[in-house]
Each structure stands twice: as C-alpha cells, then as structure tokens.
C-alpha cells in the first residue's frame, strides 16, 4: 500500500478478529452484542482495551431498528472504553466495509496506531424491518412507488436472465452453494444445507426472487483489530496484511444506471483494489461477496473480474465457487447462510478471510489460500467496498 | 405528515411528469436534478416535461409488500425507459401480472399511490399501463 496516491502510507495488519453468532438473538441487546464482539476481538489480538487509539463502528440504522442514534458514545461507554474516540460509519449494508476502511486509513496515515473496526445491527426488535431496509434505496423515487428492496434486485435478476440467459436454477445454485459452506460454520444463522428444489418451491417474495434467494433478517456483531504492520508480530504469530482497501460510489437509484446488470461501484472499487495490491483476479484464493440476494452473488463474481459478464450463472452451476473450485466464494456461507446483520456484514467478511488465511477455518478451510478478498455493497450498489488481505 | 410536505413539494413531478433537462449536453432527468452529473457547474438545467410514453426495461411482481402497499399485492413494478431517455421506477397497473414482458410499450396514468392511515392524506401520482 506504500506510496498510494503519492503519499507514504504505513502498511496495516489485522491482529485480531471476532464474530458473534448471527441469528434472531431475542435475548441479546444491541449494546451487549457489540460489546461481546469487541471483547473477543481484543482478546484475540492479545491486547488490552485501553491500548486502542480509536474505534469505528459500521451500523446502518440503529435509529430505525432500535430507536437509538449516537451509538458511538453508547458503545464506547458500554465497552468501558471512554474517553477513546469512537465514530459510527453509515453506508447502508456497506457500513461495515467502510468502518474497516476508515480504520485502515487511520492506521496507514499514522494518525492512530491500534484501532478497532467493528459492525453491528439489531434487526429483530422491530415487527417489520422492511421499511427500514428500504431506506437503503432511493426513498422518494423507488420505495415511495411501492418498490421493495428485494424487488430492485429482482429487476436486476430479470434483466440478467433476459440478456444473458441466466436460469432460475442457476440463481438457486448460488443459495445452495452458500448453504453448503454455511453448514460448516458454527457462527452461521442457518448452518444447514438446502436443495435447488427447496429454493424453487419457497414463497415468491418479488418475482423472479423467492424467499431462499434472499438473505435473512439477522442480529449480530463482528470486530477486527488493526495495527501498523511493522508492529504486528509483537501481538501475533499470524498477522494478516491489508493489501488493498477501496471504496466507490454509484447512483442511489437503480433506474439511473447505464446498465442495471452491472454494479459499477463494484467494478470501480475492484479495479482500484487490484491496482493498489498489484494483483489480478487470478491472485485471489477465496472471496467473500455481498450476496444479499442470489443475483448479487452472480453479479459480484462477474464485476470483480472472476468470470466474464453474463457467465456468473453457468460458473456457479459448474462448481467453480465451491471450496475446492477455481475461485471459492463465501466459505462462511455468505449473507444467505451466515446471516446479514447489515452493519456487521463487511466486518464479518473480513473476519472470515482472516480465519481462512490463518488456516483456522475448520471444516470450511480453503486449502492453500494465500490471498483473500471481501466485497461489501450498500443498497443496490450505491456504495461498494473491496478489501484484499494476505498472509 | 412527511407525505403532505413531500407530496406538495413534488406535485409537478408526480402529477405531470415534469423532470429536468441540461441544455448544455441534452441529457434529461427524472426526477429532476438541480445539477447535471456530466456537466456539473457548466450545465444548464431547465424544466422538462416527459410525454409519459416508454418501454419496460425490466420488472418484478411483488408478492411481499410493505404494510402501506399490502392491499395491492401481487402487483407489478418496473423500470421504464421513457421515450425521451431517462428511466423511471413505477407500478404497472390495469393488467394481469402474467401479461407483462420486457420491451412492452407503456403510457403514464394518474392514480392514487397510497393512503397515510384511515384519516390520513392520500398521495397521488404517476403509474403506467400497457399500451394497446
Ligand atoms: Zn449536462
């Protein structure tokens, strides 16, 4: 990462990670979840909490989900870490990815040394989370017309099927492979396998997408600890290095895209990430993609450069995204099976890639992985964050 | 309450499909923008009325709506490529959802969009229907 943009930046390492169990956690509150994730990451990094210089927390909508804003103060307080500065970062479902990026920038620039980047969402305290989720799209010109968030992705799916011949079964396979991996992840919300038939026979949410094409409503939190790479060996024998941390913006409304089967923000963030790391898609040994809906998993592997545009469906059918495939996708189970507590997702993706690179991923370990990637999307692609991590 | 103010502010856009046009580059926008994303400060924005004719670029049939739209389900939503160039997100009405296809010609109709509770304000605006 050195000399990126003409400025000398410090290399950054991840020395600790954690994720709470994801799921419908009725007995755990917002503040308890994020505190648990923070404590575990701090323990994993072998540091004391008061060694932290700053905290960044990704969270999409505590205001609508738990009627609490100013969560930065609440979290610092309940973690027993006042007066350490804490900031909430929001970019809908990409909030976690941006919290990670802000932490990386803080350490790389030399402004802070040891930083925690975390993410949290408590979605099950409201009866119907749909209106809150819809605020990730253009509230006035999409949601107010009666368009739900799944319907926006359904419209991408239908156009992708129309232009490239992507089949309903290929969409289903995205969910099936996610669950195959998630079945091996004890922290996943749904650690069990599903079949193509189950997906195709699940209830219609927004045609052509069905219930088992959609990531669930989830509670959960995750955290990572960052420090300057040169200090990392003081804390751990297996530091993981941040080779790239990028972000790009796209239009808030889907209808303003030149091509609604391509998420431009993913393309731009990925291009910059490959440049920053001096790598190509061939160097990536495993990737956590933002499969909020099955179609977005297909768009992601295309837009990140792993397969040609339009080939995502057949590629998944051919098994290239399985743990022993050419490009293993979502070893954690992805948003579909691990769960998708919005603000926590980008951080949980990074935690999974760290476990993979350390060789700590148990039954879902990708053999021989040296470099991994995370891909986190906000809304329908209004924001994308990409990270490349290596041993 | 928020729907009253929002609705009033956007009456020209929602009732009459008035968007905007940048006379510098010719791009048209719906909803209107105060700044042309291509020309930015060099652009010249003026009001622009769309004819309300267009083609379905993609669509979905919503079976699981939010509470506000529950009585309509299942209903069709679409991204429509307007004849003049911009794309708009709207409902497709007055048809069997099974009849809708990508590429269908549609035209704007003026309809009730939603009610804010039993005694609340009723919002009106554009929807689209298939052209014969
Ligand atoms: Zn212009």
Structure explained in plain terms:
- The complex is a heterodimer of chains A (391) and B (132).
- Chain A is of the alpha/beta class and 391 residues long.
- Chain A has two domains: 4-128 and 218-234, Thiolase/Chalcone synthase (Peroxisomal Thiolase, Chain A, domain 1); 130-214 and 242-390, Thiolase/Chalcone synthase (Peroxisomal Thiolase, Chain A, domain 1, 3-Layer(aba) Sandwich).
- Chain A has helices at residues 30-44, 62-65, 71-78, 95-109, 130-134, 149-164, 168-182, 196-200, 264-277, 294-303, 312-317, 334-338, 342-358; strands spanning 12-19, 54-58, 86-89, 115-122, 204-207, 209-210, 219-228, 240-249, 287-288, 371-378, 383-390.
- In chain A, strands 3-2-4-7-1-8-11-10-9 form a nine-stranded mixed β-sheet, with helices on both faces.
- In chain A, strand 10 and strand 11 form a beta hairpin.
- With 132 residues, chain B is mainly beta.
- Chain B has a domain at 52-130: Beta Barrel (OB fold (Dihydrolipoamide Acetyltransferase, E2P)).
- In chain B, 11% of the residues lie in helices and 43% in strands.
- In chain B, the strands form two sheets. A five-stranded mixed barrel of chain B has the order 4-5-6-8-7.
- The longest helix of chain B is centred in the first third of the chain and has 8 residues, at 2-9.
- The N and C termini of chain B lie far apart (38 Å).
- The model of chain B has no long low-confidence stretch (mean pLDDT 93).
- Chain A binds chain B through residues 128, 130-131, 134, 138, 140-142, 144-148, 150-151, 154-156, 158-159, 162, 203-209, 253-256, 260, and chain B through 6, 10, 31, 57-69, 72, 74-75, 77-79, 86-91, 97, 102, 113-114, 123, 125.
- Strand 5 of chain A pairs antiparallel with strand 4 of chain B.
- The structure holds zinc ion.
- Residues 22, 24-25, 27, 36, 38-39, 43 of chain B line the site of zinc ion (ZN).
């Amino acid at each position: 990462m050195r000399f990126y943009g003409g400025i000398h930046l410090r290399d950054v390492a991840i020395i600790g990670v954690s994720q709470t169990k994801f799921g419908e956690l009725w007995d755990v509150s917002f503040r308890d979840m994020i505190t648990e994730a923070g404590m575990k990451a701090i323990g994993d990094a072998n540091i004391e909490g008061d060694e932290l210089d700053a905290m960044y927390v990704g969270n999409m909508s505590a205001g609508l989900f738990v009627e609490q804003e100013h969560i930065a103060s609440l979290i610092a307080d309940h973690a027993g870490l006042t007066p350490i500065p804490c900031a909430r970062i929001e970019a809908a479902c990409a909030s976690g990815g941006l919290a990670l990026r802000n932490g990386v920038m803080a350490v790389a620039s030399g402004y802070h040394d040891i930083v925690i980047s975390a993410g949290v969402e408590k979605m099950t305290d409201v009866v119907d989370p749909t209106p809150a989720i819809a605020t990730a799209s253009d509230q006035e010109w999409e949601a107010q017309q009666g368009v739900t968030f799944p319907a926006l992705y359904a419209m991408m799916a239908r156009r992708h099927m129309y232009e490239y011949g992507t089949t309903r079964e290929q969409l289903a396979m995205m969910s099936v492979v996610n669950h195959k991996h998630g079945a091996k992840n004890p922290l996943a919300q749904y650690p069990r396998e599903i079949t193509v038939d189950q997906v195709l026979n699940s209830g219609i949410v927004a045609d052509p997408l069905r219930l088992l094409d959609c990531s669930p409503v989830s509670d959960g939190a995750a955290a990572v600890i960052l420090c300057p790479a040169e200090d990392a060996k003081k804390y751990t024998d297996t530091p993981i290095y941040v080779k790239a941390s990028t972000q790009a913006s796209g239009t808030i409304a889907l209808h303003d895209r030149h091509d609604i089967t391509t998420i431009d923000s993913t393309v731009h963030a990925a291009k910059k990430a490959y440049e920053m790391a001096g790598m190509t898609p061939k160097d990536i040994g495993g990737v956590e993609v933002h499969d909020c809906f099955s179609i977005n998993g297909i768009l992601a592997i295309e837009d990140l450069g792993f397969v040609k545009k339009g080939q995502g469906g057949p590629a998944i059918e051919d098994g290239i995204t399985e743990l022993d495939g050419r490009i293993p996708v979502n070893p954690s189970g992805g948003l579909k099976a691990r769960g998708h507590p919005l603000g926590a997702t980008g951080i949980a993706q990074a935690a999974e890639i760290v476990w993979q690179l350390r060789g700590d991923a148990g039954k879902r370990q990708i053999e021989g992985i040296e470099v991994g990637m995370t891909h986190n999307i906000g809304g329908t692609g209004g924001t994308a964050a990409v990270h490349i991590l290596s041993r | 309450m928020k729907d009253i103010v929002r609705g009033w502010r956007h009456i020209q856009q929602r009732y009459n499909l008035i968007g905007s046009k940048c006379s510098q580059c010719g791009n048209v926008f719906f909803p209107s923008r105060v700044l042309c994303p291509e020309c930015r400060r060099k652009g010249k924005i003026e009001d622009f009325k769309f004819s309300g004719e267009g083609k379905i670029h993609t669509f979905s049939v919503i079976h699981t709506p939010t509470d506000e739209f529950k009585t309509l389900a299942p209903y069709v939503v679409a991204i429509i490529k307007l004849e003049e160039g911009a794309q708009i997100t709207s409902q497709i009405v007055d048809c069997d959802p099974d009849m809708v296809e990508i590429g269908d010609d549609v035209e704007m109709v003026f309809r009730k969009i939603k009610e804010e509770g039993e005694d609340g304000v009723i919002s009106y605006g554009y929807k689209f229907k298939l052209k014969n």
